[in-house]
Amino acid sequence: MYMRYFSRVLSAMAGPRPVVLSGPSGAGKSTLLKKLMKEYDSVFGFSVSHTTRNPRPGEVNGKDYHFVTREAMQTGIENGDFIEHAEFSGNMYGTSKAAVQDVQAKNLICILDIDMQGVRSIKRADLNPIYISIQPPSMEVLEHRLRDRKTESEESLQKRLHAARVDMEISKEQGLFDTVIVNDSLEEAHGQLKAVLLEEIQKVKKTNMSS
Ligand SMILES: Nc1ncnc2c1ncn2[C@@H]1O[C@H](COP(=O)(O)OP(=O)(O)OP(=O)(O)O)[C@@H](O)[C@H]1O
Ligand SMILES: Nc1nc2c(ncn2[C@@H]2O[C@H](COP(=O)(O)O)[C@@H](O)[C@H]2O)c(=O)[nH]1
């Protein structure tokens, strides 16, 4: 218990707290984090995950994800390269230690966009992030958004909707998230996200000004 306490104190001294953004597929995590990173230049850094899924049109290897084979991912996991990893909708996803270290080395707020299994694993690690859940206004709206995005096959869509129902139930669990934001109006959700992160944003801005 004391070890965990001291490691949290040390990590607080080391730089800004990372941010975990979680929530059902299609809730708007990427949309919100892109908007945040556009508004705040040189404050946030994205933790680029590894995945075995195929890139979508426009996605860039090394920027949106590290797109890898299942074999490469398994080897990385066996070598202890990952803080957490999970199977989601038929593909593997994972946060490497390097992905987080790369952002933290620049003294930026590291943003992790991960599923619920990832949240559970990160809770057991020593990252001490701010946990934010992004939720859709309803299952109906979520389904519309996912269909309109046109990224999923019917099979993948159904898997994601099933995971979403589970996610929406679990996210009500007391103490799991520091904040739950319902992304109905994008502007309002963006405003709420900024408000939650204000203290960390100011910390980074202050450090950047004095360096
Ligand atoms: N507030 C909103 N109002 C209307 N549409 C939205 C809103 N937020 C996001 N969207 C749209 O919903 C779709 C899903 O959003 P997004 O891709 O950001 O979700 P996500 O949570 O990152 O999903 P995934 O976990 O699958 O990556 C996108 O087409 C996006 O443009
Ligand atoms: N546990 C982890 N989950 C991750 C990671 N990177 C992304 N994700 C989550 O996967 C789903 C699907 O993402 P998509 O890009 O295929 O739509 C979504 O909920 C992400 O949050 C990760 O490294 N670990």
From TrEMBL:
- List the record's Gene Ontology CC terms alphabetically: cytosol; photoreceptor inner segment
CDD domains named among the record's database cross-references: GMPK
Q: Which InterPro entries does the UniProt record give?
A: GK/Ca_channel_bsu, Guanylate_kin-like_dom, Guanylate_kinase, Guanylate_kinase_CS, P-loop_NTPase
Every Guanylate kinase-like domain range: 16-198
**One GO MF term:** ATP binding
- Chief localization: cytoplasm
Subunit: Monomer. Interacts with RD3.
Q: Which family does it belong to?
A: Belongs to the guanylate kinase family.
Which protein is depicted?
A: Guanylate kinase
Species annotation: Labrus bergylta
